[in-house]
Amino acid sequence: MWRDQVRRTFLAGLLALLPLYITYAVLHIVFDIVDKPLGGRIDAILSEALGQPIHVPGLGLLLTVVAVFVIGVLTRLVLFRQILSAVDGLLDRVPIVRSLYNASRQIVRPFTDEHALPFSEVVICEYPMVGRYTLGFVASANVTDDPTDDRLVVFFPSNHLHLGYPVMLRRADVVRVDMTVEDAIKFFVSCGVISSTDLVRWQGQVLDVGRATPPASS
To answer: Is residue 135 part of a domain?
Structure first.
C-alpha cells in the first residue's frame, strides 16, 4: 500500500514539474536559436566599443522581433512586394533551392493569401470507416474549378498537428462542429484528453462551408 502512495506522490510531483520544464526548454531553445546569433554579434560590438565584456540577454531576440515586424510593414509597400517577386523569380531558377523554397511557400501561402482558405473550419466526418467519427479541418472548399464538383478537402491531423492526412470528401459527408480551431488543436495535442462540450453539438447540423467562386471562363 505504501509503495502505491509513494508512486502516486512521485507521479503527482513529476506532473507538476513537467509543464515548468517544458516551458523552460522551449524558452531555452528560442533564446539559443533566435537570440544567440544576432545577440552574440551585438555583444561583440558593444564589448569592443566599451572595452569590456558586455552581454545583454534577450537583446538579439528583441531585435529579431523588431526586424520581423518591420519586414511585415514593408510587405504592405508595392515597391517591397516587387523586390520580393524579383527574389522569388531568382530563387525559382536555382534547382535545389527552388524545390525547398516552393515547398515552404506552399505551407505559408494559406496564412498569407487572402484568397486561400486557411484551417478556419472544424468539421467531423465518418472516417476512416462508417461508425468512426474523426475531427478535421477544412483545407480547401474546392477540389477543382468545376462548379458541379461537390468535393472538398479535409485535413485530419495527428497529435503532432503537422502530420496527418488530407482527404477528399463529399460535402454531404462533412458536418460543421460548433468548436473553435484553438479548442480543436487542444483536443488533438492532448490525444482527446482535453475535450469540449461542443463535440456533442454536431448532430443534426448542416454543413455551411463557403464554396470558392470558380474563375470565369474566358
So the answer is: yes
